[in-house]
Amino acid sequence: MRRSRSNEARQTYKHHRNHDNSAKKTQKSNETPPDIQFHEDIRLLVYRPRGLVNRATVNKIIIVIGELEATLKEPFNRFSDTVAADAVDLNFEYIIRVSLYRRLFYGKRPPIKSAILATDSTLVHYGRLHALLTQGSSIKVRVFQDRKEAAQWLGVPIERLSAEATGRQPS
């Protein structure tokens, strides 16, 4: 069983590596999608998916995280605010592949925290699965239903996690 999961992680790694290369060719290096922000002063990546959360949206954030990890010298935490997501088109197999890929890609780097704010039961379950599969790695994942608790765990002001702080209103 361990061997097949390892092979799945390698296949996912190859898939995302190929996407990384094609994304770099088509996207200017300083452009970030409107649902992603990086707060350099507090070392925090904020991701706010809107509408449908599917493989394409997850692949997009994985590419951005990978590019930042490759270019930045210091580790950074992550905050995913999924409250404005109104539909989910993912499955457990895909979440397993992504989680194993992130473990493999992040490797032995310094510990980071990834807080997922979720109120949708499906996203809560997928977030918990991701947290379970990254246990024992440098990636510490927790799922929250309360923004204030997520801010406390990340050690950042709650205002930095609110949509209003970004100037973008939820859809």
List the helices and strands and how they pair.
Elements: H1 2-26, E1 36-39, E2 44-47, E3 51-54, H2 55-71, E4 77-81, E5 85-89, H3 92-106, E6 112-117, H4 121-134, E7 139-144, H5 147-154
Parallel strand pairs: 2-4, 3-5, 4-6, 6-7
Antiparallel strand pairs: 1-2
Helix pairs in contact: 1-2, 1-3, 2-3, 3-4
Account of the protein in words:
This protein has 171 residues and is of the alpha/beta class. The protein has a single domain, classed as Transcription Regulator spoIIAA. It contains five helices and seven strands. The chain has helices at 2-26, 55-71, 92-106, 121-134, 147-154; strands spanning 36-39, 44-47, 51-54, 77-81, 85-89, 112-117, 139-144. It has a five-stranded mixed β-sheet, sandwiched between helices. Strands 3-5 form a two-stranded parallel sheet. Helix 1 crosses helix 3, helix 2 (55-71) runs parallel beside helix 3 and helix 3 (92-106) runs parallel beside helix 4 (121-134). The longest helix is centred in the N-terminal third of the chain and has 25 residues, at 2-26. The protein is globular.
Concise description?
By secondary structure, the chain is an alpha/beta fold. 46% of the residues lie in helices and 20% in strands.
Name given to the CATH homologous superfamily: STAS domain
- Major β-sheet, in short? 5 strands, mixed
Q: How many domains make up the coordinates?
A: 1
Bin the helical content: 40-55%
Rounded mean pLDDT is 84
The dominant shape is globular
CATH level-two architecture: 2-Layer Sandwich
Intertermini distance: 42 Å
Give the tally of β-strands: 7
Per the CATH scheme, the topology name is Transcription Regulator spoIIAA
Strand ordering within the main sheet: 1-2-4-6-7
Structural class: alpha/beta
CATH class: Alpha Beta
Please give the count of helices: 5
